[in-house]
């Protein structure tokens, strides 16, 4: 078998066999298939797609590119969550310690920023000393002792996803249903999840722009999980505007801390409670989603979720003083407000443009492995449906270079539309599958 033949076969729209998929994933993971062939393979999949059977085989090959954990000696039911990616989506930073504090251990493998969306791993690295690469032994030990882990793909855990992910980010191959489904589900399987809550984002700031595509992605992942005996629920939620106010790594960590300390933006808190409710229900800690929601609210309000976050940061080597006094997290030098150009109501606050503004500031990557600037980002002060008066702040931009600030401002000017007539707020969740 040769890599080029597999690329050509997919390029021509033919179905790959399980052996061909395994050969490609294993060869790439071992470094025998170079990045340029993997990039060509990804582009062929992007254009030609994959059947459900091929997607399931890709998922398994990626999951088994490293170790697959069995955590049942630590937790009778292992529950996990994953988002398909959005702008201002810092949900894992709140939900993982929250669900753990409510009694269900959560060991989550997250990703870095992809394209215009942020990634939990990049956000956590704004905390000085925080280690995102854990060995399997460290992962297990922390899950047993603390009950909560947030780490990235490593040489041990889903290494194929780590390598594909970094290439997809910079080769225009992210928004593909089979590639997203395999990326997410391989990490969940490798981390030993029995029950999985998928937060499938839809809208201009998501990889799935329409409800139809979001449903197709959700269904593909639910089917893969169910075929492997996992309990899976997909929550299809809005990503036409950023979630919460903060977009950018350290700014998002600050917002997550505020939320864990019972403050934080309403839409973001609400979304965290929804996802946590499903996790507590699927994990058997609550008898219904409504009971899960009540338990999640109690755990957040009592301060137990915040305490668990502190313990998680300490366990992974992060400086706890920095999260206790979040003003010590990285700060940008240039802070500029952008005022509303007119009176009226916000009709659009486009997450895609806000995400691109954050990338322009340096919060995301344009080349593989590029360093990011943890301090930069944007605070979004108005949401769809909100009234606004001319001159009131719409955004606060945190930048470290004037020319980047100017580029971000250009993106932000295209993010907003204001009209005289009122409009209703956007829905929070569209539907759940199954
Ligand atoms: N999150 C992932 O882990 N992978 C994707 O492909 C998209 C979002």
UniProtKB/TrEMBL annotation:
Matching PROSITE patterns: THYMID_PHOSPHORYLASE
GO terms classed as biological process: pyrimidine nucleobase metabolic process; pyrimidine nucleoside metabolic process
Keyword Transferase: yes
Superkingdom as given in the UniProt entry: Bacteria
Pfam family, one: Glycos_transf_3
Segments forming domain Pyrimidine nucleoside phosphorylase C-terminal: 345-419
GO molecular function: 1,4-alpha-oligoglucan phosphorylase activity; thymidine phosphorylase activity
InterPro entries attached to this UniProt entry: Glycosyl_Trfase_fam3, Glycosyl_Trfase_fam3_N_dom, Glycosyl_Trfase_fam3_N_dom_sf, Nuc_phospho_transferase, PYNP-like_C_sf, PYNP_C, Pyrmidine_PPas_bac/euk, Pyrmidine_PPase_CS
Alphabetic keyword roster: Glycosyltransferase, Transferase
Gene Ontology CC terms, in alphabetical order: cytosol
Subunit structure: Homodimer.
Family: Belongs to the thymidine/pyrimidine-nucleoside phosphorylase family.
Protein name, per record: Pyrimidine-nucleoside phosphorylase
């Amino acid at each position: 078998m040769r890599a080029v033949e597999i690329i050509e076969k997919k390029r021509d729209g033919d179905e790959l066999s399980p052996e061909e998929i395994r050969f490609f994933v294993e060869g790439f993971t071992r470094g025998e298939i170079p990045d340029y062939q993997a990039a060509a393979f990804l582009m062929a999949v992007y254009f030609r797609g994959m059947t459900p059977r091929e997607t399931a085989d890709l998922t398994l090959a990626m999951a088994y590119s490293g170790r697959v954990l069995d955590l049942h000696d630590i937790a009778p039911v292992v529950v996990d969550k994953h988002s398909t990616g959005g702008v201002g989506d810092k949900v894992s930073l709140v939900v993982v310690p929250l669900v753990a504090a409510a009694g269900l251990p959560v060991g989550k493998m997250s990703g870095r920023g992809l394209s215009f969306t942020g990634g939990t791993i990049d956000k956590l690295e704004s905390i000085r000393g925080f280690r995102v690469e854990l060995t399997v032994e460290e992962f297990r030990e922390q899950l047993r002792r603390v009950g909560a882990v947030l780490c990235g793909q490593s040489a041990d855990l889903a290494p194929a996803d780590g390598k594909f992910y970094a290439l997809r980010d910079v080769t225009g191959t992210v928004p593909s249903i089979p590639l997203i489904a395999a990326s997410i589900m391989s990490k969940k399987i490798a981390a030993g999840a029995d029950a999985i809550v998928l937060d499938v984002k839809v809208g201009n700031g998501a990889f799935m722009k329409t409800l139809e595509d979001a449903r197709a992605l959700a269904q593909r992942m639910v089917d893969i999980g169910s075929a492997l005996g996992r309990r899976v629920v997909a929550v299809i939620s809005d990503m036409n505007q950023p979630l919460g106010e903060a977009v950018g790594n350290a700014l998002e960590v600050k917002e997550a801390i505020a939320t864990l300390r019972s403050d934080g933006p309403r839409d973001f808190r609400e979304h965290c409670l929804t996802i946590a409710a499903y996790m507590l229900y699927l994990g058997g800690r609550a008898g219904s989603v409504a009971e899960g929601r009540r338990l999640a609210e109690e755990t957040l309000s009592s301060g137990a979720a915040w305490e668990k976050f502190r313990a998680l940061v300490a366990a992974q080597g992060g400086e706890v003083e920095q999260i206790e006094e979040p003003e010590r997290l990285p700060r940008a030098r240039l802070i500029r407000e952008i005022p509303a150009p007119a009176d009226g109501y916000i009709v659009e606050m486009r997450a895609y443009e806000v995400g691109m503004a954050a990338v322009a500031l340096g919060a995301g990557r344009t080349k593989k492995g590029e360093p990011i600037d943890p301090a930069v980002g944007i605070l979004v002060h108005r949401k769809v449906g909100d009234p606004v008066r001319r001159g009131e702040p719409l955004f606060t931009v945190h930048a470290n270079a004037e020319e980047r600030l100017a580029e971000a401002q250009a993106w932000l000017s295209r993010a907003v539309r204001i009209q005289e007539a009122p409009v209703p707020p956007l829905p929070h969740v569209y539907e759940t599958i199954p």
